Amino acid sequence: MPKDFSPDLVVVGFDPAWTVRGKTLTTDMYDLLKPLALHVEHIGSTAVPGMAAKPVFDLQAGVRDLQEAQHAFAPLLADRGFELTPYRQDHVPAGSDDDPARWTKRLWTRRGHREPDVNFHVRVAGSPNERLALLFRDWLRAHPAAVPAYARFKQVLAGAVPDLATYADVKDPVVDLVIAVAEPWARATGWRVADTLTPRTSAQHT
């Protein structure tokens, strides 16, 4: 993660209002960006009941082409207070020999606006990084007993590191551990990306 990324490290207790606000935000963003946005989902810690989080909503859009989406989305998002960041690459899980080119993205952020703070991740529909974000969220939703431990880890980490870049670097291997457990769960339960997408979209993929 770039060292000039926002250093906001405040991790707070779960707010039940995040669930409702996340639904509103995803609906608004989908309506703004369709049809190039095939779907928009609420991801990240604010999307997991009971999870402590930075009070910033993570949203994810699936698109067919990143360059096309960047060109089309830029003016629309700028009008909503978003700025395009230089961050173009997601972390590839440890032990994976996948091509990093399959883990590219675009990331817009909004801070200090009249509307909530948001990280807006745009990923290729069907890509491994799109899938990982949804699997991570859904595994934690399905395993509430794991939420307090992960929340506590984030709170302690936020108080121990100097910036968000270091926070992300330390947190990534822990996310890898969760995914290592989540993958067998996905196979055992038949979990698929297509089944977890918000019903407002007809885009279906695995």
Structural summary, described in words:
The chain is of the alpha+beta class. It has 6 helices and 5 strands; from the N terminus they run H-E-E-H-E-E-E-H-H-H-H. It has a 5-stranded mixed sheet, sandwiched between helices. Strand 4 (106-110) and strand 5 (118-124) form a beta hairpin. The longest helix is centred in the last third of the chain and has 26 residues, at 164-189. The model is unreliable at 1-7 and 201-206 (pLDDT under 50).
In short:
The protein contains six helices and five strands. The protein has helices spanning 17-33, 66-78, 128-142, 147-158, 164-189, 193-196, and strands at residues 39-43, 57-63, 83-84, 106-110, 118-124. The two termini are 28 Å apart.
Give the arrangement of secondary structure elements.
Elements: H1 17-33, E1 39-43, E2 57-63, H2 66-78, E3 83-84, E4 106-110, E5 118-124, H3 128-142, H4 147-158, H5 164-189, H6 193-196
Parallel strand pairs: 2-5
Antiparallel strand pairs: 1-2, 3-4, 4-5
Helix pairs in contact: 3-5
Biggest beta sheet summary: 5 strands, mixed
Structural class: alpha+beta
The mean pLDDT is: 91
Strand proportion: 5-15%
Query: Strands of the biggest beta sheet: in what spatial order?
Result: 1-2-5-4-3
Radius of gyration: 16 Å
**Helicity range of the residues?**
40-55%
**N- to C-terminal distance:** 28 Å
Number of strands: 5
Inertia-based shape: globular
